[in-house]
Amino acid sequence: MRVEVAIGQQIAHLREARELSLTQLGQAMGRYLGKPWSRQAVHQAERGRRAFTAAELAAVALALDTSIPALFLADAGPIELPGATISAEDYRAILLYAGDDVPLDGVEELIVALHDIAEVVSRPTLARLAKIGRIAEQVASTAGPPGEQHPARRNSPETSGIDHESCQRAGS
Question: What pLDDT is stored for residue 90 in this prediction?
Fold first, then answer.
């Protein structure tokens, strides 16, 4: 995969996770670049059909509330640069500033794990499951002894209009 494609995929992923339109991202970038990118320019960038200046990378990172290295994250495949193709491991390694004192043992695994966690956490399904869990806890905390209908459960907003007495009669 070309490095521009890897960056473009990350831009698209982050933009969608933040529920921004192509136009909204272009306008947000304009605050940092002096003029906004058009919808088409953002679309071209997401498709890997344009190179980026340092200022453009900084503007994208700021507009998406992320870091520049996060824009470079890619799938596990090799990355194509104009003069050579490098392995996924070597590509991930260049995204880190290690300094002289930082050991590199396990750092690659940590980067991959953090990337995977970020993908999972950004899924809309998890937000829905968390909401369902909160509602279930609320219902459970308002429940009385078995067989007794708690007054707060009869027509509370948490029940979303479910008539629990009818459900109990139907189940008996």
Answer: 81
For the chain, give the longest Cα–Cα distance.
74
Domain that holds residue 26: 3-100
pLDDT at site 24: 96
* E strand or H helix at 44: helix 39-46
- State the Cα–Cα distance between residues 30 and 63, nearest whole angstrom: 9
- Give domain status of residue 113, yes or no: no
Whether residue 106 has pLDDT greater than 80: no
Listed in sequence order, the DSSP H helices in 47-150 are: 54-63, 68-71, 88-94, 107-121, 124-142
Q: Which of 85, 100, 115 represents a domain boundary (last residue)?
A: 100
CB atoms within 10 A of CB 169: 9
Q: What digits encode the pLDDT tens for the residues 40-68?
A: 999 999 999 998 899 999 999 999 998 88
